[in-house]
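Troubleshooting log. The previous run stalled partway through. Resubmitting the same three chains, unchanged.
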Amino acid sequence: MSSAQTAGPETLGRMSDEPQGKDPSTKKAKSITGKSPMRIAMGRLMRDKIAVVCLATVVFFVLIAIFSGVLQRLFGVDTDTVLPSQFLDLDGIPRPEYGPPYGAFTMEHPFGIAPRTATDNLAYWLEGARNSLQIATLATVVATIVGITLGLLAGFLGGVVDKVISFITDFFLTLPFLLAALTIAPIVSERFRDNPNYVTIQVTQLVLVLAFFGWMGLARLIRGEVLSLREREFIQAARVLGMPTHRVLLRELMPNLAAPIVVSTSLMLPAFVSAEAGLAFLGIGITSRPSWGQTLTQATSFFNDYSLYLWQPLLGIVALVLALNLLGDAVRDALDPKTRR
Amino acid sequence: MRRTKPLAVVAGAALLTLAACGGSGDGGETNAGEREFDNASETIDKDPEAQGPAEDIEGATAGGTITVFLPGDPGPDDLDPTNGWSVTGNSIQQALTSRSLTQYKRDPESTTGEMILVPDLAVDLGQPNEDFTEWTFEIRDDATWEDGSPITAEEVAWGINRSMDSEQFPSGPGTEYSQQYFLGAGEYEGPYTDKNTDWEGVEFDNDASTVTIKMAKTFPDMDYWGAFMAMGPAPLGKESQPPAYGQNIKSNGPYKVDSFRPGDELVLVKNDQWNPESDPARHQYADKWVFKFNADGDQTDQIMLSDNTESQTALSTQLGSSSYTDGSEVLGDRLVQQSSQCTSFLYPDYESTDLNWRKAVAYAYPYEDAWQAGGEVPGVTRVPANSIMPPGMSGKSDYFVDGEQFTFDPEKAKELLAESDTPAEISMIFYEADPLAVATQKVITEGFEQAGFTVKATGVQESPYSTWTNPDDKLNKSLNLRGVNWCSDWPSGLTMVPPLTRTGATYNTGFFSESAMDDRMDEIPNMELEEQAEAWGQLDEDMSTEFFPIIPTAFRNDLYAFGSKIGNPTGDGSIGAPNYKDLFVMQ
Amino acid sequence: MFAYVVKRLLAGVLVLFLVSMSIFLLFWYGPNEPARVMCDTKTSNRCNAERLDRFTEELGYNNAWYAEYGDYVKGVFVGRDITVAAQTTRCDAPCFGLSYKNGKPVWEDMKDRLPATFSVAIGGATLYLLLGVPLGVAAARRRGTVQDKALVSSFLFLSSVPYYLFALLTWLFFSLKWEVPLIGDTGYVPLTESPTAWFGGLALAWICLGIFGCTQYTRYARGAMVEALSEDYIRTAKAKGLPTRTVVYRHGLRAALVPIVTIFGIDFGTLLAGTIFTERIFDIEGIGLWSLRAVMQRDLPIVSATALFSAVVLIMANLIVDLVYSILDPRVRLS
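Second attempt completed without errors. Output:
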């Protein structure tokens, strides 16, 4: 069964680096050189100007995410709720003295304040970045672990295990991701509404939903790689020498799988960033923390009068997703010289 | 009348969100700007003589389709007249599809939209006996169903009988009125639940075309209650079996149902069997009506402001606050502000709080801030409220519980809190599925916290009413601050005060209970008719001053946006809706 | 070949069975009080413990789940009678239960929404191909030129931006800001009612899907063409003096056919399964928007029906693609 997760519209971006559909030009044969392939790849990456710019962008966002709190203190802003009526006009738009759209930018609120609630935009933007990267990273880690584990098991053990795992992979690929996320979110919210750790549960839920619908591509990729590797001499030799299975897996196979894993992971991140914001845009993501997608939905009401409010989260998402995607592509190219574009 | 805007807007946001109070402080921002708050007329006149056909609206032309956008409003779940008790459903059906004993008509002489109570299926406004315990209505013989068959007294009696069934129609208005005032109230459970009882509360005479309703206690407001579609006919027997009938009603007004998808769309087309001669108030100008429930607020605003071909023959029942400034400029007279005869309340738990605590809450609630966060326009769609009864209701008293209008004043709240024996803790719920409700709750929490309260706010996924009105609910038991929005069913304190504060009333969400107050509520309907209005106002004032059980946070207004080709863009002050009866498409 | 088809069909049926069961179980064990929504709706939020118990019993939540699941599956194939609040409703096949909100069989409403989603999907997918393939071919023939590079890099850029942002911006500018006549007013009007309104209401959605979706077709078409143009047989054909056009389309494109058919099948299936973002942004009353609303209103039978529907469509799309693929490329069956 082929992948349902293509990069077409209505999916939340590319969930995997798996060749879309059945690309005849699979890149199985890896050229093996004497030098460390990782080092060669790094060199290649550094010579790619677009990749460097993207890398810088990504680093920028990562720093923002990590130092969100510090930055907020630096600018003297916070995400605290305020009583909005003193800052807003009757129609909910900030008054000119508090910044855009009708006034000049102020030092107190470098990005202006939000319509309706008058909270600080910069603080929300910074927290949104943090939220976005945090959830995407966690989801990527979980999905990668699941993907690698299942891929290794399927490829290495073969037989029934392979059949079962492949079936599970196909099964997950046929589940409509968006609908599943839509369905699970309110059920979880209802079930745990009284729980004191409600916020954590909501985040965990989102991470798990994202991860559970993002591991399949990697699992297939790993399985494929392992299938071709396990017949190779060095693995055969290790087995003949009586090396225990887990050692074969970890010591001999894993290093050879580093490249596909790195590529896959680097393309999972932007997909998850995009998915997180998309779900929040539809109103079913994180409700208890700032999120770019949430701001986006609210901002559409004010697009005519206060378009800046919409551009902030929008540019945040576009810049981050774009940089991550292009970087991912560059990493793939760097690791596999045979990839054509 | 319960407000059903709720799913997104009222239930969640609005409930706890809106509140009432003018100026949270420093100057200027409160003034409603160019627009003055439209006070609804003081009283509703009655004209028992009015006869059909209704006089033509000046310049009215026939034809065309009117599209009505209802942003954030899911509309009714079913169309059964007996079950209808929401502003949205009743305003549409009573004006267009479902007739009853009496009805309202916008006074053509008046510029402020005064409504007159006029006959509908009855030939007059009913003949009460001396002590208002028996009302006789003569049913006119020229009114017909959509299939052309005449409406009989028996069918009207059957419709009234149905309204006694609280089990089949748990949300119908009969639970509040039929089951309170009609003979057998509290004992007879209605024709579906109580199949074996032959109820004598309503009698009919098909030959004389009369329906006689007997009361358990004096009920002078029967003529107003008769304007509810629940006091109208239903086909006999199986044909009106609930709940199937609610999806497939038989119309008798100028329009009939073409298609109905709850929460989505209702399409009405001309009912050619409707006889204008038989109807003193309704018109049949447009060929077709399309009601779009749950319309997207922003998109609707944009459509209405764009004046494109689609919006010229459309109207929106709610212009968003973000479009208010633009709307005032672009739409001019076609932006109609209408009092919705509704009050929003916070309802503290009566058992577990004391008077000072409740007053402290009233000072700690950030009125204007909550309105703005919830997308309301302070001073326009929400104005400060001082009493339970909304403006325009006769007898409304202009008292202030604490000597002045409650405003957001954390210092005062702290003082009161110091004198209270109730812990400074608030436990409440909000509707989490609506971002506006979430934003509003944050602001409310902030206001309360500034006043020294600690707040535990739990998000719920369903309408908060489903928690508040369920005494068995575990979460509900843990709350000490709830809410309710209430709209008057007719301009009498009877429809505001008892449904909210009588012991055991469904929407008495604070479980207020004082037998002295209950007694006065029972007494007032027995008083001389002229004294009743004053008495309700006095009861409102006395109860609030002595117990302050329920905190009015806002009187509510709606903003309707009419397209440029909709003729006679006006509101209906009796229910707080567009004046569907008199609208037409300009050709 | 026959054995392969049977094998794939059986696998599809098994997946469907599991999907439907997972969905069923999710709704069975997920909510604290599964009958709550129905009870709230039927009683206008006056659902006390006693009424809740009654609805729980009526909706079968006191029975074993597998028995109820069996009924559900049976209903899908042959229909069934459902009794709620002393009212029995005939729910004809395919029966996905009754909506909690309006009490009508889910399928009755669903089939009203399908034309909108189908219209979006068919129009969008047609545009994918009409834009994507010729662009890819053109780019391949001009390989290395400025136009080619510009196309490749702008498409790379485009496909790296989340789709919903692209669609949202399109809507914000074309509909909201510029109010472009005819196409600015988006929404679904049945084709039979007014072909122009149908076209105008969906045009923006199609354009968005088309532009965004065509990028990968361009990529494949270009890749395959570049490869094909350097193959010997093409050179031979050219040398024989065949017109370039014939060479390019007859011979070159054939190589690109397999991957394009494959992704097209899956993409089209994905679109049919529900275009939630497109429908939400352009306000098109199709399956996607319907299911989003149902989620907000917690109308679980609708949510499970749409999830099941999407799964069926996706599985079918996969199946068809695999079968077509095995015809186009017989090697697949052997592997």
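Takeaways: Chain C touches chain A through 75 residues (CB under 8 Å). The mean pLDDT of chain C is 84.
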